[in-house]
Specification:
Number of domains of chain A: 2
Low-confidence stretches of chain A: none
Mean pLDDT of chain A: 88
Largest interface: A-B, 30 and 30 residues
Largest sheet of chain A: 3 strands, antiparallel
Helix content of chain A: 40-55%
CATH topology of the largest domain in chain A: Arc Repressor Mutant, subunit A
Strand content of chain A: 15-25%
Strand order of the largest sheet of chain A: 1-3-2
Oligomer: homodimer
Number of strands of chain A: 7
Chain lengths: 143, 143
Amino acid sequence: MNHSEGYKTKQRMAILEFLKRNENAHVTAAMISDHLDQTGTHVGVATIYRHLDRLLESGEVRKYTVDGTTSACYQYARLDGQCREHFHLKCEKCGRLIHLECSHAMQTFDHLLEDHGFAVDLYRTVFYGQCRECREQEGAEEE
Amino acid sequence: MNHSEGYKTKQRMAILEFLKRNENAHVTAAMISDHLDQTGTHVGVATIYRHLDRLLESGEVRKYTVDGTTSACYQYARLDGQCREHFHLKCEKCGRLIHLECSHAMQTFDHLLEDHGFAVDLYRTVFYGQCRECREQEGAEEE
DNA sequence: TTGCGTGCAAAGGTTTTGCATGGCA
DNA sequence: TGCCATGCAAAACCTTTGCACGCAA
């Protein structure tokens, strides 16, 4: 669960640090590779993919496929397990991931289960759309 | 919008027919290719991808990335425009796409917009989980 | 010292592109 | 007849794998 197994190599630390710092952005394997190159800490792509796989299994990152992109996107996820207890909103414009603590939405979750027989996978389900900030910005641009 | 532009070739018809007949299943480009080969109507993969792209743009098909799979999945979508007015549930087990006509869920949609400022993209948002039938079947298997 | 981690290069798979040919309108 | 559509093969991509070497514990 907590990915504590394994060696604490500088490559692993560098990858993890980058993921954490970009908690609210789409991150691809290529982006990690590029960033590390620029920072002077070159890490082979194979190593990056191997770590992402492990982080995925341990639940430390989520994996997305964003719109038109062909490559997978990863995002650091909270480890406290709360992410299986609430929905997530993802802004299609800025890429921000919002952890939605909302009883109204959870009522819908219960309703779907009880009245439709459908058990929603909270971890996997993501509401795509546009967040308040991006909508306001959009409105301002259209003057 | 309605993809009526373009020639009515037998390749395009064959692809579209297969997609429609498998409205409730995950369909990959490879599956289309295989099926058409077996039916005796060989169609080059390039043609298949080109049509899928066009159908995607016109909104006639949706594109998914299913869990462990590496290739994209496509699914025929209704054309009547109603799909922008309700949520969708997707069973992770049987692949069925459920068009959810549910006022409770739509209340949540309104709530997210009014109280959280988040405009959900109904067409893109999909609730992943398990449908009633698959859950019952699962329960029966565990005897 | 032991065995996991890493880098490189090659392999594997999916999707896209270029170009000559074929076929709808 | 004029274009768009198609097929093939090559290219472009992303991701995985094999293997020898390096390094954390």
